[in-house]
Design brief:
14 helices; about 550 residues
């Protein structure tokens, strides 16, 4: 072996030896550079898929808003005094005017509990109504069973056109007398896809509870009413949102993301062709291979060139990341501004009507307007909470070591001042030092202590206790109250977005506060849970995992 080594060294020229030395010296640099580019490619790939998921969440939110608007419009119509007085001729005129006011509504029908038509805005009042069966019985039966509004699945009506029903119950006291239904054209959902301005090569879809296509950015007429692709259906399963590789109905492989609506079984999906996402990555890999070969042939020159290229790529990616973050911030602002504008208008005009025409309005009319203003303010709070919840995913954790007691005292005083509940007894126990992001921990404490203040509102002697216990080698912080409490069989719903265990008439709220608590604690590596009994108060626990050393 030694002779072979001597022969090998002696057989090489000095120039060749220098090339070998340079190549060996540069090899770790080249390997690290290639590894860095591969990691960068994976990062770009993950960011592209995350951006896809963020976009489809916006789709689902837009679907939520449109369906919510349709349901609320029908609810208002269901409260008509004409219907209460059984003046069907007048109610037919009101319903027909409501249908004409919305270009996406084909018509409105009123049926009794048996499904028999009472009136149809597409049929002149007094004319004989056809003995037609209920279209899309599933949602009709859901309204009968629950007494709540329901969004139906897309189906073909008697005229052979695809429509989906939006149904609300007509209640008189505790009795369900009728079901009021608006048949909505899929064009309403197609407008959402148009407004989102997705890349031309992508495929965006809005689907119903049966995973049938309601609207599609490509070949809508061909696939409306049919099922989404099998691969997309498998990807979705029963999950609320996700991403992966699927095939479109045309057979094209795409990177897909989906998100379901929070108000209905509906949702949205977005697919971008794989070659559109992968092409930049393959180009980066090809250039890396060329750089590796050049580094072996040109030595130092190639190493310098490669280093400059890597630096250039990193600068380019950083610039793209900065641009992406700015676009996300602009998108969040746009969503916030676009949603708040109509709410301000609703609240403002309702207030003007109440101030200027209060004397001419009947009590019931004033009550309706007050409900409109209350709903607008509730929606404003909901928008604020949703934006705060979404921003938590991008907010960095700035841990530091500190004593939490002053922070707890600050939160208690702040809540006393804001709520005016000076009579709530607050007991603060021993709180050991922790390592956490102080600003985020303040939000956790404000939400938990604020809930305790709220749900002790009906207690004779409201009491809130904040403390810490040592369990299994870790500090477990808790907030305990003697308020309304809840049934533990619903505990799994506590920390979900929009999940509330009490009606808004009993205790106001948006259903986002505890979800924010759980996300902040989870980002600290901790856990959240609760214990309670109805009427005996509740205790919320959380831990803060120590940072990795």
């Amino acid at each position: 072996m030694a002779a072979l080594r001597r022969f090998s060294l002696q057989s090489l020229s000095l120039h060749t030896r220098l090339l070998v030395v340079v190549a060996v010296a540069l090899l770790p640099v080249v390997v690290l550079a290639i590894a860095g580019l591969l990691a960068l490619g994976r990062q770009q790939h993950a960011q592209a898929q995350q951006a896809l998921l963020e976009r489809v969440r916006a789709f689902a939110s837009a679907v939520d808003l449109e369906l919510f608007n349709s349901v609320e419009a029908l609810k208002i119509l269901a409260l008509s005094t004409s219907l209460e007085a059984a003046d069907l001729r007048r109610f037919h005129a009101e319903a027909r005017a409501a249908a004409r006011a919305r270009s996406d509504w084909e018509g409105i029908i009123l049926v009794d509990r048996t499904g028999k038509w009472v009136l149809n805005t597409r049929v002149p009042y007094g004319s004989a109504l056809p003995a037609a069966a209920v279209v899309e019985k599933e949602s009709f039966e859901a309204v009968l069973a629950t007494g709540k509004p329901a969004i139906g699945n897309i189906a073909k009506g008697p005229r052979g056109q695809h429509r989906f029903p939006v149904r609300v119950p007509v209640m008189r006291g505790a009795e369900l007398r009728y079901v009021l239904t608006a048949f909505v054209k899929p064009d309403l959902m197609r407008e959402i896809l148009t407004r989102q301005k997705v890349p031309e090569q992508s495929v965006s879809t809005i689907f119903d509870g049966r995973l049938n296509i309601v609207a599609r950015s490509r070949n809508h007429e061909q696939y409306a009413g049919s099922a989404v692709s099998e691969s997309l259906a498998r990807l979705m399963g029963s999950e609320g949102e996700g991403r992966g590789i699927t095939a479109t109905r045309e057979g094209q492989e795409v990177y897909s993301a989906f998100a379901r609506s929070v108000r209905s079984p509906w949702g949205a999906a977005l697919g971008v062709p794989r070659d559109l996402v992968d092409a930049p990555l393959w180009r980066s890999y090809a250039l890396s291979g060329a750089g590796f070969l050049l580094s072996l042939a040109l030595g130092v020159i190639a190493a310098v060139w490669l280093a400059r290229r890597v630096a250039g790529q990193l600068q380019k990616v950083n610039a793209e990341l900065q641009t992406s973050n700015k676009e996300l911030e602009a998108f969040s602002y746009s969503v916030s501004h676009d949603l708040r504008g109509p709410l301000r208008a609703i609240d403002g005009y309702s207030s003007m009507v109440l101030e200027d025409y209060a004397d001419s309005l009947p009590p019931e009319g004033r009550r309706y307007l007050e409900r409109v203003r209350g709903s607008a303010k509730q929606m404003g709070h909901l928008i604020d909470d949703l934006l705060a919840f979404a921003q938590l995913a991008r907010q960095e954790i700035a841990r530091r070591h500190f004593e939490p007691r002053p922070l707890v005292e600050e939160c208690v005083e702040k809540l006393r001042a804001e709520t005016g509940k000076r009579d709530v007894e607050c007991a603060i126990g021993k709180l050991p030092a922790c390592e956490a992001d102080a600003a985020l921990l303040r939000q956790v404490l404000l939400n938990l202590i604020g809930n305790a203040f709220k749900y002790t509102g009906k207690a004779a002697r409201p009491r809130v206790e904040i403390g810490c216990e040592r369990r299994d080698g870790e500090d477990v912080y808790y907030v305990r109250d003697n308020g309304a409490g809840f049934d533990m069989k619903y505990a799994d719903k506590l920390f979900g977005v929009f999940q509330r265990l009490h009606r808004n008439e009993e205790f106001e709220g948006t259903g986002v506060g505890l979800a924010i608590v759980q996300r902040i604690v989870a980002r600290h590596g901790g856990r959240t849970w609760a214990q309670s009994e109805p009427g005996k108060g509740a205790t919320f626990y959380f831990t803060l995992a120590a940072p990795a050393r």
